[in-house]
Amino acid sequence: MIDYHVHTFLCDHATGTPQEYIEKAIDAELFEIGFSDHAPLPEHLRQNITMEPEETEDYVTMLQVLSDKYPVAVKIGFEVDYPLHPTFDARYFTDTRIDYLIGSCHFIGDWPFDHPAFVDEYTKRDINQVYRDYYRIVYDMVASGMFDIIGHFDLVKKFGYRANADLSTEIEPILQLAAQQLTAIEINTSGWRKPVNEEYPSFEIIQKMFQYNVPVTLGSDAHAPEEVAYNFNEALSLIKQAGYRKIVGYRKRKQYAITL
Ligand SMILES: [Zn+2]
Ligand SMILES: [Zn+2]
Predict the structure, then answer these.
(1) Could you give the domains of the chain?
(2) CA torsion angle for 178, 11, 85, 185 (degrees, to 10)?
(3) CA quadruple 102, 82, 179, 152: dihedral positive or negative?
(4) What secondary structure letter does DSSP report for 42?
(5) How far apart are alpha carbons 122 and 111 in whole angstroms?
(6) C-alpha count within 13 angstroms, C-beta hemisphere, residue 47
(7) H and E: helices and strands count for the chain
(8) pLDDT tens, 28-85?
(9) Are 149 and 34 in contact, with CB atoms under 8 Å apart?
(10) I want to staple 40 with a disulfide (CB 3.0 to 4.6 A). Which of 53, 75, 140, 158 is the partner?
């Protein structure tokens, strides 16, 4: 199996060394581990969320060196915030050392809605509008065509605040577009470690993804070595239950199939 969403100490909120993540991947019998640490945000937003612009080259070089030392394939990616910020050098979008880019939305305007310190804001807003605003950004992110993978598709549910409106008119056009462009959506198991206590996205959305033929991939969003491959048996069983018989991996931004 593969884990395409793991972090490093460079983002300042993950623990352990990359070597420890790789060793955990080997223990878990993964054949690929993909690092996708947080690409640099501007300083006023960064606050222990991402690496600094000066660290991106060290990050890529560190992973290149490690990839030669282990029997497991080490993939090099970034988790990039959308909307984009100029602090992430645009040349990484065409850099052949990069295997894949995950696009993620962690901000609605200036609100870091998945940050525990700002959770109160959910009680101050119309929750259905929060979800609509979030999915609007995700739609634009997919439409940009800049990303291989969409990170934690329904992250806005993280703290358990649920929309009560039907959001299919927001969600289905995103799935349709992702399918057309072959943009993958990751099954991200970190939701099982958060108040919402379920994977991203929900099983209902995974079933729709299968109907639309959206490529699927898999990530733990590990911020500690022991979180690598977290709850993968459960995730794989949901993926198969939805109908999938393969997931996708990437090499130098080229997608390939991995049979389940
Ligand atoms: Zn993080
Ligand atoms: Zn994220």
Answers:
(1) 2-259 (3.20.20.140)
(2) 0
(3) positive
(4) P
(5) 10
(6) 5
(7) 8, 9
(8) 999 999 999 999 999 988 878 999 999 999 999 999 999 989 999 999 999 999 999 9
(9) no
(10) 53
**Which residue has tokens 């993540």?**
21
Of 256, 257, 221, 254, residue with least CA distance to 100: 254
**172 CA distance to ligand 2 middle (Å):** 22
**What is the spatial order of strands in the sheet that 2-6 belongs to?**
2-6, 32-38, 73-81, 100-104, 149-150, 184-188, 216-219
**What's the rounded Cα separation, in Å, for the pair 191 and 27?**
23
Rounded to the nearest angstrom, the gap between the alpha carbon of residue 257 and the centroid of all alpha carbons in its chain is 18
Q: How many residues does the chain have?
A: 260
Ligand 2 centroid – CA 195 distance (Å): 16
Place of tokens 């959001």: 167
**Model pTM score:** 0.97
Q: Which ligand is nearest to the CA of 223?
A: 1
d(CA 73, ligand 2 centre) in Å:
22
Please give the average per-residue pLDDT across 2-7, as a whole number: 98
Q: Which residues of 50-88 are buried (b: 16+ CB within 10 A; e: fewer)?
A: bbebebbeebbebbeebbeeeebbbbbbbbbbbeebebb
**Both tokens assigned to 32:** 């690929």
Among the bound ligands, the one closest to the CA of 9: 1
